[in-house]
Design goal:
By secondary structure, the chain is mainly alpha-helical. Helices cover 70% and strands 2% of the residues. The protein has a two-stranded antiparallel sheet with strand order 1-2. The radius of gyration is 30 Å and the shape is elongated. The protein starts with 5 loop residues before the first helix and ends in a 16-residue tail after the last strand. 42% of the residues are buried.
């Protein structure tokens, strides 16, 4: 063994480290008759890549001499592990630095949220290379400072694939899908070759726009580039086709090539759930050779979001019984299912489990708990949870505002909204829906109209159909139907069914036949098979004693085969939720809900 030269020893150590055999590499390193700088740096780099920073630093301190690679490797290791202060100290102690050292420190600052330090260090660099500019573009993009990222990109004298990909990913990250596609076209014209990450970013943009034709063009380029067998590229293609409603092409991608990677199975599983093909999804799930936590989460979320909350709860129990450990996403989906079916006891039980698993400080899980308690009518629990949260985001505030609004506490919702703004949290579109709904429920007409008008003026939020429906509902609840009609007629775009249904329901409550007919005509044009319109109009005629018109509406429903959706109810008994439909005799104890003593 000792007769091998140092190059051979170094090659063997490097090979072991690449395969994660750190202890074997260290034993070989200790047996070397003589180590050179490459030997030491290889061993330190292996420790860093495997997250063994203490061992890396200990070996660094034993080195007879250091070079810039030794220092830079340790700086990068500490930066990537979140120990930014250690990285800073080492960087300052470096006797000499090269451009790689500077780049490692800049990337470390970005990764640890030290934006201003990253900008300062970039400005102090004695020389820069493409990687320096790429680090800045990536950092700005991750911070959603897309204009600054684009300025950096435009100032570059030379760009490589990483530059284009970082900028494209930045656009995709903030939902500027069209800009991402435009940049991808410019990249093609510039002669820069895309890689797997580039294709993943542009496919994300196609999915965001539901742009099937563009996705197919990108798919063709993927084939020409030879990446069609890459599992992550295939997964991105499946996701894109699925989100665009093109599940057949998603299936084709899935079925073409090797299917051993669970990532591919999870992608098509999510595709079936997104396209409401839960039977196919469950069949696929049952036949998976290997499932991970993402597989379980996908199915639980699919059922929870498709009004099958009880199935989601069953799957959660099966997941635990199979020995899988739930994560943040699992709990969020489970709480969503509890909220859908008002499963208060199940929600309380999983709340205790969340505490046990150490997720009690997680903002996303906390937001799910607030929503669950609110929708189950336990607004006191939601309020206590909100006030005890160590950290809140805009979703936390929005969930609590909705909770107050849904539980008849409109004044508290408005007060919390004002407190939110005082705390410097900028409301989003969903927040505004919550506060407008709260104003509607407690009759704060002037306040609601003020908040609506302030959306574009003060908050740069474009009102959506949901916001417009809230204002219509607000005016209608106050009996101001003429103003509601004027508001609908003045809308910049044609009102949708949600807006018109609010107005028609008010016509029923106030027995306004003329306005009811005007509203129903527009609803018939949008959705002639929607039973809600016929039923509300029939009720308006009945309230006005126009029974011939009631019969005409009912006959029309029969003639064009419009069917009323049956009512659904659920009750919770001994921590189990029982669901049944109106007139449903298939339930094992169907006679009990109708029993009268």
């Amino acid at each position: 063994m000792d007769i091998r030269n140092v190059v051979t020893w170094n090659a063997m150590i490097t090979g072991l480290l690449r395969n994660g055999r750190v202890e074997d590499a260290r034993q070989l390193f200790d047996r070397m008759p003589e180590q050179d700088l490459i030997s030491w740096n290889a061993m330190i780099g292996g420790y860093v890549r495997n997250g063994l920073l203490e061992e890396a630093h200990e070996l660094f301190d034993k080195m007879p001499e250091h070079n810039v690679v030794s220092w830079t490797t340790l700086v990068a290791g500490y930066s990537q592990s979140g120990c930014i202060e250690h990285a800073c100290q080492l960087f300052e102690e470096m006797p000499q630095r090269n451009v790689v050292s500077w780049n490692a420190m800049i990337a470390g600052y970005w990764q640890n949220g030290r934006t201003e330090d990253a900008i300062r260090l970039f400005s102090e660099m004695p020389e820069r290379n493409i990687a320096s500019w790429n680090a800045m573009i990536t950092g700005y993009a991750q911070e959603k400072r897309i204009e600054d990222a684009r300025q950096m990109f435009d100032e570059m004298v030379e760009r490589n694939t990483v530059s284009w990909t970082a900028m494209l990913a930045g656009y995709a990250h903030i939902g500027q899908w069209k800009d991402a596609l435009k940049l991808f076209a410019q990249m093609h014209w510039a002669g820069s070759k895309p890689n797997q990450s580039t294709f993943t970013g542009v496919l994300c943009a196609c999915a965001g726009l539901a742009a099937v034709e563009e996705a197919k063009q990108v798919h063709l380029q993927i084939i020409k580039s030879g990446f069609q067998w890459d599992d992550f590229t295939r997964s991105a293609l499946i996701t894109t086709y699925s989100k665009s409603g093109n599940i057949r092409d998603a299936e084709l991608v899935f079925n073409t090539g090797n299917k051993s990677n669970v990532v591919l199975w999870n992608a098509i599983l999510a595709g079936y759930c997104q396209n409401e093909r839960l039977t196919y999804a469950h069949h696929l799930f049952d036949n998976m050779a290997k499932r991970d936590v993402v597989s379980w989460n996908t199915m639980i979320a699919g059922y929870a979001q498709s009004e099958h909350g009880e199935e989601a709860l069953k799957l959660f129990l099966m997941m635990k019984q199979a020995g899988n450990i739930p994560n943040q996403s699992t709990y969020t989906s489970y709480l969503h299912a509890c909220a859908r079916i008002a499963g208060f006891e199940q929600g309380k039980q999983v709340h205790a489990h969340i505490h046990k698993m150490g997720f009690k400080s997680d903002v996303i899980v906390g937001n799910g708990l607030i929503t669950m308690y609110s929708k189950c009518g336990s607004i006191g629990c939601a309020d206590q949870l909100f006030r005890e949260m160590p950290k809140r985001d805009v979703v936390s505030w929005t969930a609590m505002i909705f909770g107050y609004a849904q539980n008849g506490k409109g004044n508290e919702a408005v007060q919390l909204f004002e407190a939110m703004r005082m705390a410097g949290i900028k409301p989003n579109q969903i927040t505004m829906t919550g506060v407008l709904s709260a104003c509607s429920h407690v009759g704060l007409v002037d306040e609601g109209c003020y908040y609506f008008n302030s959306m574009g003026r003060d908050l740069s939020i474009t009102p959506t159909a949901d916001h417009q429906a809230c204002i219509v509902d607000l005016l209608c609840r106050a009996g101001r139907l003429d103003e509601a009609k004027a508001f609908v007629k003045a809308m910049p775009s044609e009102p949708n069914m949600v807006v018109l249904a609010s107005l028609l329901a008010a016509c029923r409550d106030h027995v306004n036949v003329e306005l009811g007919e005007w509203t129903a005509e527009r609803m018939f044009e949008l959705e002639p098979q929607n039973s809600t319109t016929y039923i509300l109009l029939s009720n308006i005629y009945a309230a006005a004693d126009r029974w011939d018109d009631v019969r005409n509406v009912r006959n029309t429903m029969k003639d064009i085969e419009v069917k009323k959706e049956p009512g659904c109810s659920w009750i919770e008994v001994k921590s189990k939720v029982h669901i049944f439909l109106a007139g449903d005799q298939s339930y094992p104890q169907s006679e009990m809900p109708y029993y009268k003593a």
